[in-house]
Amino acid sequence: MRGADVPAVATLHRAAFAMPWSERVWRHEVRAPSSRVWVAVRPSDTGGEAIVGVVVLWLLPPPEAEIATLAVHPEHRRQGIGRALLRQALTYACAQGPVQRVFLEVRADNASAQALYRAFGFAVVGRRRHYYFTPQGRVDALIMRRECGLRSPLP
Ligand SMILES: CC(C)(COP(=O)(O)OP(=O)(O)OC[C@H]1O[C@@H](n2cnc3c(N)ncnc32)[C@H](O)[C@@H]1OP(=O)(O)O)[C@@H](O)C(=O)NCCC(=O)NCCS
């Protein structure tokens, strides 16, 4: 992701989340030394490129890293883009010597994201009750973890 991508990424994130990150947050993420951000692009109707997905990896104090957000535009889902972004972030994280495990948080009612994460070897290691505020009420967060040393190949 480049600085020029901020408006498009913020728009994409708004399409994917009820409580999206603001442009200010995205401007910070692009520059933050401990953040790595990748976008997925597709050829656009106007001949350029459209951003259709984004993933943010935080390199936390070793030995941990965190997938901070992952989103694919609703019109481009179930085409392997989320899988490709997650594979990129995990491969990068685990190639950093000090990183041994990667965490993430996911809504307890988000079955599609959980299916994706389980396919990558993430397992639930904790639950934060009533963590998310949603229009439907409060929803728990599941904390998932994947060890870099896991031997099964990434999908
Ligand atoms: C979760 C999300 C990123 C998945 O992106 P995607 O590009 O559609 O995912 P992929 O096409 O790469 O799917 C990979 C695998 O994830 C699982 N999966 C993805 N969407 C699914 C769904 N709606 N139902 C069940 N499983 C699903 C499947 O195992 C799928 O493999 P398959 O298509 O071979 O069955 C996307 O749905 C999204 O942006 N959701 C809103 C934001 C969000 O919830 N982000 C995660 C927050 S923690």
Any overview of this molecule?
Helix content is 28%, strand content 38%. It is α+β, with helices and mostly antiparallel strands and 155 residues long. The chain has a single domain, classed as Gcn5-related N-acetyltransferase (GNAT) (Aminopeptidase, 3-Layer(aba) Sandwich), CATH 3.40.630. Strands 1-2-3-4-6-5 form a 6-stranded mixed sheet, with helices on both faces. It is globular, with a radius of gyration of 15 Å. The two termini are 23 Å apart.
The counted number of beta strands is: 6
How helical, in percent, are the residues?
25-40%
Low-confidence stretches: none
Q: What fold name goes in the CATH topology slot?
A: Aminopeptidase
The CATH homologous superfamily is named: Gcn5-related N-acetyltransferase (GNAT)
What is the terminal-to-terminal distance? 23 Å
Bound molecules: coenzyme A
Short description:
With 155 residues, the chain is an alpha+beta fold. It has helices spanning 6-16, 23-31, 81-95, 111-119, and strands at 35-43, 49-59, 64-72, 101-107, 123-134, 137-147.
What would the keywords be for this entry?
155 residues; binds coenzyme A; single chain; Aminopeptidase; alpha+beta
Mind sketching the topology for me?
Elements: H1 6-16, H2 23-31, E1 35-43, E2 49-59, E3 64-72, H3 81-95, E4 101-107, H4 111-119, E5 123-134, E6 137-147
Parallel strand pairs: 3-4
Antiparallel strand pairs: 1-2, 2-3, 4-6, 5-6
